[in-house]
Specification:
Largest sheet of chain A: 7 strands, mixed
Shape of chain B: globular
Structural class of chain A: mainly beta
Radius of gyration of chain A: 13 Å
Radius of gyration of chain B: 13 Å
Oligomer: heterodimer
Shape of chain A: globular
Structural class of chain B: mainly beta
Number of helices of chain A: 0
Largest sheet of chain B: 6 strands, mixed
Number of strands of chain A: 11
Distance between the termini of chain A: 33 Å
Distance between the termini of chain B: 40 Å
Strand content of chain B: over 45%
Number of helices of chain B: 0
Largest interface: A-B, 27 and 26 residues
Strand content of chain A: over 45%
Helix content of chain B: under 10%
Number of strands of chain B: 11
């Protein structure tokens, strides 16, 4: 399977704990995106990388959120001191700049903060 | 801030009926994607439109990009229960950053 892969698929955590999600993009794709989606809404942009450089961060991404893509391949999204409002589906997508304009999504990580 | 508004938000129809979903913005997009999303899954790309006025067909689905590249529509002919899902449009302003619409939740009843 050469699609976008996200792990874990589901995460339940207690309020105040830290969580980390991983995304493995399509191998030749140089751009990687993180989105957050709450129930009944469209995905909201959080941040994106081109290769290892983080080019833009949304104002939705508070100081408790950090994303990395250290070698320009996989990426991690960490949430520190989780709050109940962080409960959402976290989606990763990748695309090829200079190729087609399409972004392909992973299956998402569903986070529940209790 | 670029915004994409979709209408209707919810649509419940009988099998065999036709429907159209709209995606509107005041901003110009260099391309626009349509996705369908099942509960608990990530969005799956259906089509990308790039040229103003472009029409693309995918079986019973017809996608159109507005002449000014600010709006798009998705028309489904003879809807089937398998078409049920959340339909999302997403626009790229040319920076390869995708802004999503509010979504249209479609339910097709057998």
């Amino acid at each position: 399977d050469t699609g976008v892969s996200q792990n874990p698929r589901h995460k339940i955590t207690k309020r105040g704990q830290n969580v980390t999600f991983r995304c493995d993009p399509i191998s030749e794709h140089n751009r990687l995106y993180w989105y957050r989606q709450t129930l009944g809404q469209g995905p909201e942009f959080l941040t994106y990388f081109q290769n290892e450089a983080q080019l833009e961060k949304s104002r939705l991404l508070s100081d408790r959120f950090s994303a990395e893509r250290p070698k320009g391949s996989f990426s991690t999204l960490e949430i520190q001191r989780t709050e109940q409002g962080d409960s959402a589906m976290y989606l990763c997508a990748s695309s090829l700049v200079g190729g087609s304009t399409e972004a392909f999504f992973g299956q998402g990580t569903r986070l529940t903060v209790v | 801030t670029q915004l994409l508004e979709q209408s209707p938000q919810f649509l419940s129809i009988q099998e065999g009926e036709n429907l159209t979903v709209y995606c509107n913005s005041s901003s110009v997009f260099s391309s626009l994607q349509w996705y369908r999303q099942e509960p608990g899954e990530g969005p799956v790309l259906l089509v990308t439109v790039v040229t103003g006025g472009e029409v693309k067909k995918l079986k019973r689905l017809t996608f159109q990009f507005g002449d000014a590249r600010k709006d798009s529509s998705l028309h489904i002919t003879a809807a089937q229960p398998g078409d049920t899902g959340l339909y999302l449009c997403a626009g790229d302003s040319g920076t390869y950053k995708y802004i999503f619409g509010t979504g249209t939740r479609l339910k097709v009843l057998a």
